[in-house]
Specification:
- With about 130 residues, this protein is mostly helical.
- The chain has a single domain, classed as de novo design (two linked rop proteins) (Up-down Bundle), CATH 1.20.1440.
- It is built from 4 helices and no strands.
- The longest helix is centred in the C-terminal third of the chain and has 33 residues, at about 95-130.
- It starts with 12 loop residues before the first helix and ends with a helix.
- The model has no long low-confidence stretch (mean pLDDT about 95).
């Protein structure tokens, strides 16, 4: 019987990209004044940090169905962060086009990796049900 190799969370590419996204979001958050942090910034950084936090929580769950639940939450937080808060910051001229482009490039890469990660986990569920 083939033994599965355990991959540390820090070695997962999807996790590494989420950490990069969080770092870029933090750079944006740090530049905000207190008022902007309270209005938009807190929700932006919370939703961004939730992406990697839910990947970690799901990854450490035993059952695949538990894992997938947290990965779906991670994807929803990703969408909130990138498609709402980041876009709102750009629309309101609270971040530069360069900052937007930098974080959007990472987000575009993450979207693909996160969807692939979820699909792989779902395929494991289907494989175990056969």
């Amino acid at each position: 019987m083939e033994q599965k190799k355990y991959i540390a969370i820090k070695d997962l590419v999807v996790y590494q990209i989420t950490r990069k996204l969080s770092s870029l979001a933090w750079k944006i958050y740090e530049k905000m004044d207190w008022h902007l942090q309270k209005i938009i910034g807190d929700q932006f950084i919370t939703s961004t940090d939730s992406v990697d936090a839910n990947i970690v929580e799901g990854y450490r769950r035993y059952h695949y169905r538990d894992k997938i639940k947290f990965y779906y939450i991670s994807r929803a937080s990703f969408c909130e962060s990138v498609y709402h808060w980041l876009e709102l910051l750009l629309e309101r001229n609270k971040i530069s086009n360069d900052e937007y482009t930098e974080i959007k490039l990472v987000a575009d890469e993450l979207q693909i990796k996160l969807n692939n990660f979820i699909t792989t986990t779902c395929n494991q569920i289907n494989k175990n049900n056969e």
